[in-house]
Amino acid sequence: MSTFDRVLPEISIIFRKHAENVKRMAPMIVNRDLNGRVRLIVAETWQEDAAALTALDAITREMHDRLDPHAFAPDRAVLFEEKIDAMIAGAPHFPLDGVKDVSVIDRLATEGNWSSIVPETKGIPRTVFFSIKGGVGRSTALAASAWALAERGKRVLVLDLDLESPGLSSSLLPDERRPTFGIVDWLVEDLVENGDAVFDEMAATSTLSHDGEIYVVPAHGADPGEYVAKLGRAWMPKVANDGRRESWSQRLQRLLDALQARWTPDVVLIDSRAGIDEVASACVTDLGANLILLCAIDGDQTWSGYRILFRHWRTTGVVRDIRERLQLVGAMIPDVDGAAYFDGLRERSWNVFAEELYDEVAAGELAVGTTWSFDESDEGAPHYPWPIRWHRGFAALRSLHDRIESVDAREVEAIFGPVVEGVLDLMCGDGEANHA
Fold first, then answer.
1. In Å, how far are 18, 81, 178, 360, 421 from 77, measured between CA atoms?
2. pLDDT-derived band of residue 404, with 50, 70 and 90 as boundaries?
3. For residue 123, is pLDDT > 60?
4. Phi/psi zone of residue 374: left (φ > 0), alpha (ψ -120 to 50 degrees), beta?
5. Residue 80 lies in a domain
6. Can you tell me the distance from the alpha carbon of 24 to that of 1, in angstroms, rounded to the nearest whole number?
């Protein structure tokens, strides 16, 4: 009996065995439903072709024998559709490994889709602060970076998209300056065409900036109201009267575009939800981020989580669309034995990047031409951590606003300097050279 993880590899084996008939009937779709069961979708022209029907019967019987209970019975395992190309274009999909012109459409219960990568945005650069696990100082790093960029005269737009655990705004805004509404309010009101009612009251400027500006858009307003009830509706898709469907992440993209037009920042910093859920998926893959900072502390859970995500990108064939935007951040580098800790972090980071993201380079050969690979010691490589030193004064986000208000710029530079400089490089157009 097969398990879920063996379904697609087994189908690849079956299809290669029947390669001649598969090639003849291509393009084809392997449709995996919400329960994890698979069936085939082929063009309806083959419904009248005796040889094609015989081949499909053989393929689906073998699928049922090898994949049960993850395959439909042969008499229910094939759907005939008029326009196969249109189905592929209209749904998230990825190629079946090792089989040309066969795509997999994966039906998921959530809106999150880590295998659909929106191209990089043009114009105002967007940086996402992401971590596979919480508690690594991600939000603190974003807040300190926003302050440092504003001190250099930049206009910074900050979005708190950690919707299920909001709090970033408390590090940049005192209670009396928090706006009336937040992102969740807009997402809910937008469902009933009432987003404009809250839009102008969902951002506030931080008093911490002196030479530039920090515009903060929190997850919720000063009075959260029925936040749990609103949160349960924020991720809803919007369906127009003419039937057009707009996913929640597309609505979020529309909101971000409007916020940029309203506040005209030099850079956008986005605080993502930690982990592999639909909010994090929207932040990392759906908002056109130019730079994705992967905050990490050294530990088995960190590398297991990033490996799962990287392998998914590789398996679904989108790794080339996102890997050049990634940069590891070594969070909370300890004061004691920090050098040894950093070396271990870099080594394990390189192992994961090399195995899942980098192009394979044969032993003794150099990475040349279009090969995308890096040595472990290459300081310009995405696996080479940008260090953030642990500091007691920045360890508690709850008191960070007061901490930043009296902070010494040299202290921020010493702790968060590599991250700030990396974002500045991106803004100046040097990011491609440094992060690709």
1. 16, 13, 56, 37, 55
2. low
3. yes
4. beta
5. yes
6. 30
